[in-house]
Amino acid sequence: MNLGYRLAYRLGFTPWENAGRSVFAEQLSHLLDAGPSPGVGATALDLGCGTGEHSIDLALRGWSVTAVDSVPLAIERARDKLPTAGADVTFVLGDVTHLPAYVDDGYTFALDVGCFHGLTDEQRTAYGDGLTAVTAAGAQLLMFAFSPGRRGPLPRGAAREDVERALSGWTVVADDALDTSGAPGLLAKAGPRFFRLVRN
């Protein structure tokens, strides 16, 4: 999967970046507003951050943000945005299935906009173990994922049961369908959802 993302960024074909800025940006903003409020020293983790749009948004909301992606070009472009964005984010070139090797611990919030749903079952288990290891008890995770299904170039998707299996140390407290009224047909048919989880 990583090779595909590397090629996509190299070719400039990144429709998921556009969707995050337009199709579901408003709903994501509302969900972030409804989540935990950043206090002094509150730390957030952006998983599969791409070029950093959501990472920067979190920082502007008051979080101290660390963002991880495995595509060098995506991280490079994310870092290039910081001088004009007016935000302070630590962008890390790393693997979300080995989080303790790349980031500190004690995070109280994590955001995943389309990362988990593209991983294999084995990678999902490693992702869950690593995320549990680097977050504090009571931490929240907000995750965007397509429903399972084969849709050509789109990620394989993830059902609630897949999320619960991989994140056994967490509890799903909300499961909301994406408002697809303004979404392109392919995205609407993918059954996108937002899951909110709390670490036990």
UniProtKB/TrEMBL annotation:
<keyword id="KW-0489">Methyltransferase</keyword>
<feature type="domain" description="Methyltransferase">
    <location>
        <begin position="45"/>
        <end position="130"/>
    </location>
</feature>
<keyword id="KW-0808">Transferase</keyword>
<dbReference type="Pfam" id="PF13649">
    <property type="entry name" value="Methyltransf_25"/>
</dbReference>
<dbReference type="InterPro" id="IPR029063">
    <property type="entry name" value="SAM-dependent_MTases_sf"/>
</dbReference>
<protein>
    <submittedName>
        <fullName>Class I SAM-dependent methyltransferase</fullName>
        <ecNumber>2.1.-.-</ecNumber>
    </submittedName>
</protein>
<dbReference type="GO" id="GO:0032259">
    <property type="term" value="P:methylation"/>
</dbReference>
<dbReference type="GO" id="GO:0008168">
    <property type="term" value="F:methyltransferase activity"/>
</dbReference>
<dbReference type="InterPro" id="IPR041698">
    <property type="entry name" value="Methyltransf_25"/>
</dbReference>
